[in-house]
Amino acid sequence: MSESMSLEMEMVPELDKPAKIPGSAETASGVDGQVEDQIEGPVEGVQVSWKQAARERSILFVDDDERFLNLCVRRFAGTEYVLYTADCAENALAVLASEKIDVLVSDMCMPGTSGAELMHEVRKNNPGVIRIIVSGRFDFTDTLEAINKGHVDHYITKPFNDKDLKLTIYRALVQKEQREAEENRRRQRRENAFQRARELGQSVAKSKQEVGRAYDQSLELLTRLVARSSSGIAKRADLCVLLAEKLGQGEPFSKQIRVAALMQDVSLVGMSPKSQSSGSGDREAFRQHPCESAELVENLTPFGMSADMIRYHHERFDGKGFPEGRKGEEIPIGARIISLVNGYYKLRKGKGISHADAIEALGSLEDRYDPRLLMALANLEGSFKPR
Asked: Contact 261/240 with Cβ under 8 angstroms?
């Protein structure tokens, strides 16, 4: 590893109780090429377990000014953080590719790739990294670029006190740990629920009567689970079945599409409504949920046949959907039905418009939906009430 990507770490003795944020601080300034040291007192009234926040956490500092990098390393050397430095965005990306980084602190104005452009790349490839921009000047355009392109967590102007940067990093790490803990709790709840469902599925007896009874019990259990976190899911499942029957699909298909419609977003159980929006900060996680939901359902007897309907229910007829960009007849008909019903339900319940207006609105979205299915749905007027 080059000098620009050197690793430096120092340990501090064990503390019996939470310690104040280290009392000395330096002001770092990139203006006119000057780096200034300034000693200050402790942060008044702030008590944190600094060692606990720092343990097993790493920070990558990025700046083309070597003196600023050395200053950052020196001022953070009294903590248990693992410290990395890089003198340009390209070297920073190399560190991120090979090491586990928790916090990225980058200068805004650097030769070649800017700090905002670096943050944009990191957000795409390392979305869990906390992103902090520092800049020797405050420029509203730069700030907008950093926010819109890099979705930075914090924007700090030079000169700044090192205690302010340390406190910013500490608070960001606490928030990250809280999010991770909540995600772990959500995952555990989901795993527990599916463990119960798997155990129920495994108990299915060989006789046809017992299999049918176990199927109904499993479906009832799963319906209760997903209904808590997904608005109108049972009504959407009913409409999917109606539309399938209108298209001449048999009873086995109707049972499978009911399961798929109910379970389409099961991997989002426990996630907040804001996080479930594909336009939120969790966009990457949202785009993975069809595959995650399908994988969960594949392992559940006797619902595995519904998995592909779930996996591709965010595909579009014109090929502009996800996760694979399938188009037309490449998309399973069950997935096409679920996609259309979701769009229809959103218009009927969310917008409060009539059946005819909803059909017209869906038809105006170019080739997003299968026109044959849209025509069949148009003929179901009066068969479904969203409220």
From this structure: yes
